[in-house]
Amino acid sequence: MIEETRIFDNNLFKLYKYAYNLHLNNTKDFFKQKSDEELKKSLINEINRDDKHILVYIDEKIVGYLMYKIDGNSIFLSELAVDENYRNKQVATKLIKEAMKIAKENGIKYVDLNCWSFNEAAESLYEYLGFDRIRSFYRKEI
User: Fold this and answer.
1) Residue range of the domain that includes 13
2) 0.85 exceeded by the pTM?
């Protein structure tokens, strides 16, 4: 089952925390360490903003989420996470296709997203789904 939500759920928090820690551990000094309480507040703030969340449920458990925001002529996918036990089962593909469906229903022309270079699996998925790479971000420590 796929649905949009604005609720806080412990399974959603686990996915959010996983995604945050993945970024924290794979980007040098880009993110700061946060306690569970700080992460919960961040997630609640995101839920209460204009950003929307699409959830995938299997057996009444949230196994994937995607956060997006509609901005002008594009829908921006800002976060995507899938429970490790449900990876390679089309959950991420379902989330992205649902976002594309929402975009079409709203007359939106583009689906945009950012992807960290360490996340090769995500890059492969986006390319498989027909996304084009149009920008790269570089950093040098001095």
Assistant:
1) 2-128
2) no
